[in-house]
């Protein structure tokens, strides 16, 4: 889907193009009756409160309002657009009604994500729910489809529901009577609260090949619902690169159940130039210089991670060709930084060529036009949870064949292209990436499933995790008093489910609050920071001057803080007060713009983030989690009675209570440091190197004992630790860990 050429400055409520979640027209849409509404963009069929009163509550449209489209109008527009999926419309509807489960393999550019929900809504009636793995896709698709389906924006026939942490509690749900676009995680949560799937006629699981954690839960729920509702529930599995056999076997279908739809791709030639055991970054740059003049248009260089991307940009910029711009693209970048790539051709850059150094985010999540050359390293960084040591691991892996095909296809969206693979064809061993559920902690997954009144041990996973891992998660939930001995949810478990954090983080949060109520604000800041994994990596910077500025900031922070956690909280709090609204004048204290509803000025906050090299989007997510956490814990429904014990220093309170729930993260700084050996992790016995972004790397160590809330295994012998907080030595500690003996034996 193309980016809007105006970006988030676009004021067209009907805009069918892609915007970031920061784009903020009035979500009340035509229902907004506030004549003083601070939002500048409303649908033309909006009826103000004054007009409602004048018309005695009768339903009246404004003179410039648009009537909703008829099916005939939509069909005419579809014929004019001629998306490839249109040719399969009748077969799709007929076969779905007959077979109840349909696997649709629709190539890139076919129109599957926008058209299939509309076809289903018109043919079957009832509610059509279409899941998406990412927030930005769910919101953008809903807005585009609403314009195609109704002729107005979201809020009538088409709506969306996403996690409140991503876009704020006021923007995360817009009603829709016919079609709902939802993130898979939001669907699981919504079904717990309201049973939304009970009212769903057709469930479309889009981008199923990504196999995210919650996608697999939704797939399992779909299978259960098919058995419970044998006559009025239908399921569509949709993807460009889906492995059909896996889904056919799971739903007990035949090969004839696949519906194949061609896309709009030009021919892409493929070449191979394997890396001769050297640096993959140096090899990629060498190949780039060799091929650059042979192709016009833009170039994508796929690398495994942000660190390799930064190295590649530094190396390429030393001899960068004339009229060329090198830009990074990876998930931790802010929307503004990502838009430098996505909207490159829409600015004053007609004479320039762009080389984008990217991760796998560019495989399917975004569309970059005018790409003619792709250089594929064949590598990807996959997060994995070590169940034995209860530690996260980052592994650099060879990509799957489906990922290789997706990367190749990036060169054929708008014209014929060329893909050079820096590996041998025989290196593509895996057909698909390993499902997230097989390499993740299942503690929260088990809790979510139990809250659905289902048994995690019996749940129909399309790729079942090892039973011992599920049992270990159930044992942990029992130790945390989230479930009873019969695996029924407890009131404490319901509270943890509503908080939505990993159960160990929720236990740390709740139990520390119950003992030390006055530090709720600190706790509600620390936990969202720790659980928003991209927060620290957002502050690295892509350019050398940005990286140096980030290092200088950490050095300054080390002068004031002996804890990474307290240092990160200070950054968050300074951001929170930027662009504050004066409660008396209702105007921003910086730009003096009036705001009748908001507690902060969004534009001034974004400017502060740019100046201080912070990811404004990530900080907004942390703030949403912070506000939700305080709201949940202070809700009288839970009847929590926090204590007032504050004799101990706040820093000591954090250290003592973190050790209770994360004993495997305890470590000690070595008196004599060597390469990759700055510290030792006490429980596991492995050595680790300190991250440059830790204040521990830039201050004299008085207390060598710490708890590291970020422990990453970068290779078999190299670990990096970050987010450190001082704690007592094991001999001084009087508190016993709560979490013990719940690891999975190898």
UniProtKB/TrEMBL annotation:
Ribonucleoprotein among keywords: no
Q: Keyword set for this entry? A: ATP-binding, Helicase, Hydrolase, Nucleotide-binding
Q: Which SUPFAM superfamilies match?
A: P-loop containing nucleoside triphosphate hydrolases
Annotated ranges, domain Helicase ATP-binding: 93-260
A molecular function (GO) term: RNA binding
Q: Does the keyword Hydrolase apply?
A: yes
InterPro entries in alphabetical order:
DEAD/DEAH_box_helicase_dom, Helicase_ATP-bd, Helicase_C-like, P-loop_NTPase
- The Helicase C-terminal domain is annotated at 287-453
Pfam families the UniProt entry points to: DEAD, Helicase_C
- Provide the protein name: RNA helicase
Tell me the lineage of the source organism: Eukaryota, Metazoa, Spiralia, Gnathifera, Rotifera
């Amino acid at each position: 889907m193309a980016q809007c050429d105006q970006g988030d400055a676009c004021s067209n409520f009907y805009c069918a193009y892609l915007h970031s979640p920061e784009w903020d027209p009035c979500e009340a849409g035509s229902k907004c009756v506030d004549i003083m509404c601070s939002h500048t963009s409303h649908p033309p069929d909006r009826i103000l409160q004054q007009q409602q009163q004048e018309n005695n509550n009768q339903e009246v449209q404004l003179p410039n309002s648009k009537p909703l489209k008829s099916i005939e109008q939509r069909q005419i527009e579809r014929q004019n657009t001629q998306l490839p999926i249109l040719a399969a419309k009748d077969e799709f509807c007929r076969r779905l009604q007959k077979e109840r489960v349909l696997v649709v393999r629709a190539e890139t550019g076919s129109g599957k994500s926008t058209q299939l929900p509309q076809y289903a809504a018109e043919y079957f009636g009832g509610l059509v729910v279409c899941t998406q793995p990412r927030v930005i896709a769910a919101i953008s698709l809903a807005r585009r489809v609403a314009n195609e389906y109704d002729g107005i924006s979201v809020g009538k026939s088409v709506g969306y529901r996403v996690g409140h942490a991503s876009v704020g509690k006021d923007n995360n749900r817009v009603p829709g009577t016919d079609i709902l676009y939802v993130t898979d995680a939001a669907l699981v949560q919504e079904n717990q609260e309201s049973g939304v799937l009970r009212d769903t006629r057709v469930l479309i699981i889009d981008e199923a090949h990504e196999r995210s954690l919650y996608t697999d839960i939704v797939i399992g729920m779909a299978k259960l619902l098919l058995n419970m509702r044998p006559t009025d529930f239908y399921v569509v599995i949709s993807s460009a690169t889906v492995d059909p056999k896996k889904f056919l076997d799971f739903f007990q279908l035949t090969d004839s159940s696949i519906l194949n739809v061609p896309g709009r791709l030009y021919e892409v030639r493929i070449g191979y130039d394997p890396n001769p055991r050297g640096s993959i970054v140096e090899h990629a740059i060498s190949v780039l210089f060799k091929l650059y003049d042979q192709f016009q248009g833009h170039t994508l260089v796929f690398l495994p991670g942000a660190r390799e991307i930064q190295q590649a940009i530094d190396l390429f910029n030393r001899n960068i060709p004339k009229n060329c711009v090198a830009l990074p693209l990876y998930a931790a970048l802010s929307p503004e930084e990502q838009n430098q790539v996505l909207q490159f051709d829409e600015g004053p850059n007609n004479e320039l060529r762009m080389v984008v150094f990217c991760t796998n985010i560019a495989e399917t999540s975004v569309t970059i036009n005018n790409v003619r050359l792709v250089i594929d390293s064949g590598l990807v960084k996959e997060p994995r949870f070590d169940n034995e040591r209860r530690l996260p691991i980052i592994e650099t892996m060879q990509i799957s064949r489906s990922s290789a095909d997706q990367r190749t296809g990036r060169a054929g969206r708008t014209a014929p292209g060329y893909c050079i693979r820096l590996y041998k064809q025989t290196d593509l061993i895996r057909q698909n990436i390993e499902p997230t559920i097989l390499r993740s902690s299942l503690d929260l997954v088990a809790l979510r499933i139990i809250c659905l009144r289902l048994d995690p041990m019996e749940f129909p996973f399309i790729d079942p995790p090892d039973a011992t891992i599920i049992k270990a998660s159930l044992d942990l939930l029992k130790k945390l008093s989230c479930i009873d001995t019969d695996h029924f949810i407890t009131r404490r478990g319901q509270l943890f489910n509503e908080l939505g954090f990993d159960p160990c983080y929720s236990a740390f949060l709740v139990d520390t609050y119950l003992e030390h109520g006055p530090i709720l604000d600190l706790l509600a800041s620390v936990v969202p920071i720790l659980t928003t994994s991209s927060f620290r990596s957002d502050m690295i910077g892509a350019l050398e001057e940005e990286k140096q500025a980030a290092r200088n900031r950490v050095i300054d922070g080390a002068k004031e803080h002996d804890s990474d956690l307290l240092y990160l909280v200070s950054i968050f709090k300074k951001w929170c007060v930027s662009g504050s609204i004066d409660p008396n004048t209702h105007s921003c204290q910086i730009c003096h713009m009036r705001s009748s509803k908001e507690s902060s000025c969004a534009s001034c906050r974004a400017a502060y983030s740019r100046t201080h090299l912070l990811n404004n989007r990530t900080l907004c997510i942390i703030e949403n989690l912070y506000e939700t956490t305080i709201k949940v814990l202070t809700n009288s429904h839970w009847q929590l009675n926090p204590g007032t014990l504050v004799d101990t220093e706040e820093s000591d309170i954090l250290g003592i209570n973190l050790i209770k729930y994360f004993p495997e993260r305890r470590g000690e700084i070595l008196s004599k440091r060597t390469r990759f050996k700055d510290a030792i992790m006490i429980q596991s016995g492995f050595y680790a190197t300190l991250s440059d972004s830790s204040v521990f790397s830039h201050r004299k160590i008085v207390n060598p004992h710490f708890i590291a809330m970020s422990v990453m295994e970068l290779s078999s012998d190299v670990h990096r630790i970050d987010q450190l907080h001082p704690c007592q030595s094991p001999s001084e500690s009087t508190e016993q860990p709560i979490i013990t003996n719940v690891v999975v034996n190898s």
